[in-house]
Amino acid sequence: MKFGHFDDANREYVIDTPKTPYPWINYLGSQEYFALISNTGGGYSFFRDAKMRRLLRYRYNNIPTDIGGRYTFINDGGDVWTPTWLPVKADLDHYECRHGMGYSIITGERNGLKVSTTYLVALGETAELQKITFTNTSGKPKDIKAFPYVEFCLWNAEDDQTNYQRNLSLAEVEVERDGKLEVTGRPLAADGNRDSTRPTYTEISDPDAGKFTGAAIYHKTEYRERRDHYAVFAVNVPTEGFDTDRDSFVGLYNYLGEAQVPREGHCHNSIASGWYPIGAHEIHLTLAPGESKEVVVVLGYIENPDAEKWADDTHQIINKKRAHELLGKFSTPEKFDNALAALKVYWTDLLSKYKVKSTDEKLDRMVNIWNQYQCMVTFNMSRSASYFETGIGRGMGFRDSNQDLLGFVHLVPERARERIIDIASTQFPDGSAYHQYQPLTKRGNHNLGSGFNDDPMWLVAGVAGYIKETGDWGILKEPVPFDNAPGSEQPLMEHLKRSFDFVVSHLGPHGLPLIGRADWNDCLNLNCFSSTPGESFQTTENQAGGVAESTFIGAQFVLYGKDYAELCDHLGNHDEANRARGAVEKMRENMLLHGWDGNWFLRAYDYYGEPVGTHNDKEGQIWIEPQGFAVMAGIGVDSTDPTSQAYQDSPAGKALASVDKYLNTPHGMVLQYPAYTTYQIKLGEVSTYPPGYKENGGIFCHNNPWVTIAETVVGNGKKAFDLYKQITPAYREDISEVHRLEPYVYAQMIAGKEAPKHGEAKNSWLTGTAAWNFVTVSQYLLGIRPDYDGLIVDPQIGPEVPDFEVTRVCRGATYHIKVHNSGQPGARATLTVDGKPIEGRLVPYATPGSTVEVTATL
Ligand code: GLC
Ligand code: GLC
Fold first, then answer.
1. Residue 808 to residues 89, 601, 611, 791, 853, Cα–Cα distance (Å)
2. Is residue 424 a contact partner of residue 466, using CB atoms and an 8 Å limit?
3. CA separation (Å) from 458 to 9, 305, 333, 561, 707?
4. Best residue for ligand 2 mutational test, from 435, 522, 766 (most atoms within 8 Å of Cβ)
5. Ligand 1 pocket check for 394: Cβ under 6 Å
6. For position 542, what pLDDT does the model report?
7. Could you check whether the bond before residue 456 is cis, i.e. omega within 30 degrees of 0?
8. CA 522 to ligand 2: nearest atom
9. Separation CA 433–CA 820 (nearest Å)
10. Which residues pair with 514 in a beta bridge?
11. Measured from the CB, is residue 300 less than 6 Å from ligand 1?
12. What is the DSSP-derived secondary structure letter of residue 368?
């Protein structure tokens, strides 16, 4: 069952009911100002940091789930409704939501009035804009009232929800209309009714007032003290009224959908003084039959330098110069349309770096549009703000951000470079790392600290991915501090050496890496032994002196250790390269000697040195992470012909066959099997989830691509493509009632085979799956993979995608690659470059500006 459809020509997903199985959201903004918006107008926005600079309030665990956002209440001759359906929930005659690249368009129509709102964050601006188009589709003239509405958050989103004793006395606003300023509300009248008469304006001299012709509400809570920022919520047309106090607009005992002002038909002109500040405007429109009128709404974030903080500091009137500039830029619908057009050009340009044309439209739309789009979002957000991540918890992950880079680097390499430097600056001198850092301060997060022993090698992965894409070897010489300490700067290459050495110097009794608090799997906490409710499994190390080891980090070290060695060679440091290769080789041996159970790789050794993930275990016999990663790293790969006996006898062949047998399902591969049915104090958080969810036997999509890539490594393109399709949203669109989340983006988890809700997804958007499945499909299935000295062309996608073409822009040159694919197991491409056959599968990089024609036949 579907709830909409893809519109590939417009790069949009079109939702045709507000009652999707869960709110289906989009992200606006790609650099500093971000907004989340659901198909019913819900969501919130923030400047850079979802916790520290929240503009709009959002209530978690709400009933219903998704109330709070940007809404326009309509009063059409007494009939009150919202074109986003929520919050009023009046039936709509027509509804449509189009989520596009950085914009959304939501249209609702009722009783001959069509209201269509386009939402976007303009490029380079710290503001979200709406253009609302009101169309009279009835045969009669209409007089309508519209009330655009938002609720402000008092900046720190966590404090905002908890610290009422302070916060409810803080709110301050200013209102500006017709060149006049209102900053003090009229005190309550004797009858206790604030609204018996509309307050008169308090005119206070503001040299800048009157420059703006519409109406603007300024949210300036805490500006009087240490903040240098405020928010502005404005409309570009004259208004008949406003409200800034929530209870005046909604009514103390009403749900938002029952808000009293839209029903009464006029605002109270309330000035918030403490309590809950909102922004609401009252607009009157007269529409002849068939006539349309447009209104532009701006929600902006403004920062003022200290010296320019006030227009009048005696009366604490904020300086609005920058706000007026912003509002001036979007004072007409035409200016809004230009911003939308610029956004579309921006995305056309970004998405032109990798394009495929095949016979499979689902494949094409994921590769050309949605997967790359999601990679941008995960790069921007890390795991901070979604409908499952509150934005008040996590900062940027060291591990996560390095992986997110891999799917993003081709889009905006300069930003990937900046990110690498930020991440590396939080590394400790011994090569370990803060597990997370705060995006606003870029400082490591002390609460969580370090000790996740896979973190160091992810930095190597990120840097290697960046250099392969860009050829920017200079980054390795860039001076980067440790733990952000001034004076501690060393070239980035030294950071990589410390990452590498951290693993080498933290090996356990089997020569495999010590796991620390956890490896990639945050929930495998082998040193924790927690019996205290509520204690964090990630930060509590209840037992020191254990020898728990990780085969995942072992495989990761083999894979990225080879990259480290290649980087050393490129810098001419062959001794170090050889030392590194020696350590990698030793690890490879130890993985096969001590990390192998007979038919698959072990998962770990526990605190006591006992193996985890063996055929002797009753639960958690086989785990996915080391199988995919080890084969990706080439461990146990004795043959790349999946039909051969040699392959079937090889560790890689056995491991992948075991994955297929025990872990695979039609909805993706589960993380381990059988799931734990009881709490295992030796293993930690992994066994806290009911069987089939999250790390306990859920389909944790992030690691599925590792197995998919592994299948391409052994020449099994057909199997690889089957695995890819199982978790890829466009292929799951038809079962949206089961999957429940957005059919255009990956989710972190799909309930596993032991869960009652097998196939149901959770945690959409912010997942490493986005980057990893883009790497998988673009570099391994379609097979176009940047390497240090050239573009590898090595497709492995099986017979279902016979012929296809890829356009890849890399290092300034454009490669047109035509693939003729037999899809035979084990087949590998032979290439021609500009008509001439070449040896091998590496197309040397061409000079920037040139175009290269490649054919690949297999
Ligand atoms: C989450 C975390 C990620 C971790 C994964 C597995 O996605 O963000 O860092 O690797 O869970 O536990
Ligand atoms: C990962 C896991 C989650 C765990 C968290 C701890 O995101 O998916 O289950 O609670 O890490 O940080």
1. 46, 36, 45, 10, 11
2. no
3. 37, 38, 46, 11, 18
4. 522
5. no
6. 82
7. no
8. 11
9. 45
10. 549
11. no
12. I
CB count within 10 Å of CB 7 equals: 13
Cβ contact 172:223 at 8 Å:
yes
Least confident residue range of 12-16, 107-111, 163-167, 200-204? 200-204
Residues found in the chain? 858
Residue 2: which of 739, 756, 752 has the closest Cα?
739
What is the model's pTM?
0.96
Task: Find tokens 């994921």 and name the residue.
Answer: 366
Give the tens place of pLDDT for each residue, 261-276.
Answer: 999 999 999 999 999 9
In the predicted model, is pLDDT for residue 438 greater than 90? no
Atom 5 in ligand 2: which residue has the minimum CA distance? 522
Q: Inform me whether the pLDDT recorded for 201 exceeds 50.
A: no
DSSP H/E element including 59? none
What whole-number percentage of the chain has pLDDT above 70?
A: 97
Cα–Cα distance between 653 and 706 in angstroms, integer?
Answer: 15
What distance lies between CA 250 and its chain's CA centroid? 33
Q: Are 329 and 125 in contact (CB under 8 A)?
A: yes
From ligand 1's centre to the CA of 590, what distance in Å? 26
- Ligand 2 atom at minimal distance to the Cα of residue 394: 12
- Residue for token pair 């022993």: 453
Q: How far is the C-alpha of 396 from the C-alpha of 51, rounded, in Å? A: 12
Question: Starting at the edge strand that comes first in sequence, how are the strands of the sheet with 851-857 ordered?
Answer: 354-357, 803-810, 813-820, 851-857, 830-833, 836-838
Q: Are strands 851-857 and 813-820 parallel, antiparallel or unpaired?
A: parallel
How far apart CA 623 and CA 611 sit, in angstroms, is 12
What is the band of 182 on the pLDDT scale with cuts at 50, 70, 90?
confident
450 touches 550 (CB < 8 A): no
**Structure-token match 């709509």, residue found:** 92
Structure tokens belonging to residue 769: 């799956």
Rounded mean pLDDT, 621-632:
98
Model pLDDT for residues 50-101, shown as the tens digit of each residue:
999 999 999 999 999 999 999 999 999 999 999 999 999 999 999 999 999 9
The closest of 849, 851, 846 to 817, measured between CA atoms, is 851
Kindly give the pairing relationship between strand 127-136 and strand 113-121: antiparallel
522 is catalytic: yes
User: What is d(CA 759, CA 736) in angstroms, rounded to the nearest whole number?
Assistant: 10
Cα separation, 581 vs 573, in Å, equals 12
Give the residue from 801, 788, 775 showing the smallest Cα distance to 842.
788
3-state SS class at 719: helix
Ligand 2: atom nearest CA of 748 is 8
Considering 522, 563, 597, 794, which one is annotated as catalytic?
A: 522
pLDDT of residue 200: 45
Residues with CB under 6 A from ligand 2: 522-523, 538, 685, 694-695
Q: How high does pLDDT run on average in the chain?
A: 95
In angstroms, the CA 248 to CA 254 distance is 11
